[in-house]
Specification:
There is one protein chain. The chain is α+β, with helices and mostly antiparallel strands and about 600 residues long. The chain folds into three domains: about 400 residues, no CATH class; about 80 residues, 2-Layer Sandwich (Alpha-Beta Plaits), CATH 3.30.70.1450; about 80 residues, Alpha-Beta Plaits (2-Layer Sandwich), CATH 3.30.70.1450. It is about 60% helix and about 10% strand. The protein starts with a helix and ends with a helix.
Length: about 600
């Protein structure tokens, strides 16, 4: 079997795994390396080169710089000051919010930026009486467009630049993409503000959490009579927990309340229990507690939010969460977070049954009841660098550390200036920035390690290996030949338009980094075959790979706001398709002019 065919088969297998999400992206990336090395397409040293590549290291260091800026509390402070403007001038405030997110996302990783802004937008929407669905999708889209403007705005740009350098070409400068990215950003903000608002859903957002998650039919109160088999048993041994798989949320006994009781809590006769269950299990409850009068024994009830000893929280699963791909049972949700899951908003569905068995995805929203005194601990966990969730109902705001903010800002500006002036490579500039932050005691080394998204690091290493294999086997030249032979006679505009569409459609259904790794070598070969500047086609691939607006699964920030905004899949298609067309038109029109084709 020829090396080109082996590489093609590995690439196709990777595409299938990325699309189906049968395996995590980092594991797929490692399998790419193993497969290509074992088949002899690349050498072991070439397989491991991706881990020491400047692009991979730059992305890792930029995660640390992002964490330092977020730790200063500056973004929360700025967003908090916008609340009043949303009440008086909502259109103007929406523009300012998108521009703020875009500018920040141009220089630090956009995933944590969106994570910070989701609960803030929720509070702004509540105080200004705006549907959060009108703000969350524009928030995600603005972060994506901001990332298109600079080399360090997204890992995709850094990856494409790294592939160019591997091929012996000059990589991107910090602002190579800025002329096109800024135009896309301006047009995109105008579109989202004045036309997009009409395409966004106008669903009622004033429902209580119980109504949003249809909880009333899934919480029940039961009374344990004296002759019940439940009397005297520990919760972990009780039939309703072991055989009916229910959660006991509260026990009331002689005027006392025991919220989220431990598994070794012993039930007694005349205890009143609040349990989570479905309609069918309510019928089963009557058999265990031997109650025939439903009105006095088993009854559907409200959520009990009027009590002070427990609260409902919405927890959004983050893209890098330990929850992704696991079930609540596997992460030991109840014991680890002192919380009982009541419902999960999984994409467009709200689920109440088998909650402990559902493999979670990024963007899923878990509605849970927690002890009120434990909320402070949940907020502490949320503020960590590797937080597994965002609390939508979070009211905590980092104290704004003004001196630290100016120090971190100076470090980031210094990194950008050093790289822009070509005094040192961007990877070394970013490393210098990390060292400065640690020496300046803004971050500890442990926090720096926690800030790095290791899944992305492994994905980039695997992607670079795939790019090397395509070059070694000649597969990139073969695909480029097919593309140029069928399109080149129509002119350079047709070539750029076609390459953009191909890249963009792929990135909507699989990882944007994987798409860039697949097509960047093709872009280089196509440019060399036609004798044009490869930079033009590489910029096209970078922008098209990032411009994922039509589906909620093509980009991490879209997945984060999907369930949080109570969107439907087609909401992204309806709002994102015109924005994709704007990006396509701007890129096709400007690339030949900017790069003198």
């Amino acid at each position: 079997m020829s090396p080109a065919l082996i590489t093609l088969l590995v690439a196709l297998a990777a595409v299938i795994l990325f699309v189906t999400e049968w395996l995590t992206v980092d594991l797929v990336a490692m399998l790419i390396i193993v497969g290509l090395v074992l088949t002899g397409v690349i050498s072991p040293s070439e397989g491991l080169e991706g881990f020491s590549n400047g692009a991979t290291l730059t992305v890792a260091f930029m995660f640390v710089l992002s964490a330092a800026l977020l730790k200063t509390g500056a973004l929360q402070m700025l967003a908090g000051r916008m609340s009043e403007r949303f009440r008086t001038k909502p259109k103007q405030a929406t523009v300012l919010l998108m521009l703020l997110v875009a500018v920040v996302s141009a220089f630090i990783n956009n995933t944590p930026v969106v994570a910070v802004f989701i609960p803030i937008v929720g509070r702004i929407a509540a105080t200004a009486k705006i549907n959060p669905a009108k703000l969350l999708m524009p928030l995600s889209f603005a972060s994506i467009m901001g990332g298109m403007c600079t080399l360090i705005g997204t890992s995709t740009n850094i990856l494409v630049s790294g592939i160019a350098e591997e091929a012996g070409l000059p990589g991107f400068s910090v602002f190579t993409l800025a002329p096109i990215g800024v135009v896309i950003l301006v047009l995109g903000v105008v579109y989202l503000t004045y036309l997009g608002d009409r395409l966004l859903p106008a669903r009622d957002a004033e429902e209580s959490l119980a109504e949003q998650f249809s909880l009333h039919d899934y919480l029940a109160e039961i009374l344990i009579p004296a002759d019940s088999k439940l009397a005297g048993s520990r919760i972990m041994d009780s039939a309703i927990v072991r055989e009916l798989d229910m959660d006991i949320i509260e026990v009331r006994r002689d005027g006392a309340r025991f919220t989220l009781p431990a598994g070794d809590f012993r039930l007694e006769a005349e205890d009143t229990l609040k349990v989570r269950c479905d309609r069918e299990k309510i019928k089963g409850l009557k058999d265990w507690v031997r109650i025939t009068d439903q009105s006095s024994g088993v009854r559907v009830m409200g959520t009990g939010l009027e009590r002070n000893n427990s609260s409902l929280v919405e927890m959004v699963v983050t893209p890098n969460s330990e929850f992704v791909g696991k079930t609540l049972r596997r992460v030991d949700f109840r014991r680890s977070y002192r919380a009982v899951p009541l419902a999960i908003r999984h994409r467009e569905a709200t689920l109440h049954e088998h909650l402990y068995e559902l493999p979670l995805m990024a963007g899923d929203v878990i509605l849970a009841e927690v002890k009120t005194h434990y909320l402070k601990e949940l907020h502490r966990i949320e503020q960590g660098q590797d937080s597994p969730f965002i609390l939508l109902s979070s009211n905590t705001i980092h104290d704004f550390k003004q001196t630290r903010f100016y120090f971190v800002l100076a470090v980031i500006v210094g990194v950008v200036l050093l790289a822009t002036a070509n005094l040192v490579p961007i990877s070394i500039a970013a490393l210098l920035g990390v060292c400065t932050l640690v020496l300046g005691q803004t971050l500890k080394m442990s926090e720096a390690y926690e800030a790095i998204d290791w899944k992305i690091v492994f994905l980039l290493a695997g992607a670079l290996s795939l790019g090397k294999a395509m070059n070694n086997s000649g597969l990139d030249a073969s695909i480029a030949g097919l593309l140029t032979n069928s399109i080149s006679h129509l002119g350079v505009y047709a070539l750029i338009a076609s390459l953009y569409i191909l890249t963009n459609l792929l990135t909507e259904v699989m990882s944007n980094n994987a798409t860039a790794a697949l097509l960047a070598p093709v872009a280089i070969s196509a440019a060399q075959q036609l004798g044009i500047d490869p930079m033009a086609l590489l910029v096209t691939v970078s922008i098209a790979a990032s411009a994922s607006f039509m589906t909620p699964v093509g980009y991490q920030t879209n997945a984060m706001v999907y369930s949080a905004g109570r969107y439907k899949f087609l909401d992204f298609t309806r709002l994102g398709t015109p924005l994709n067309l704007i990006c396509w038109a701007v890129t096709t029109a400007m690339v030949p002019t900017v790069f003198g084709l």
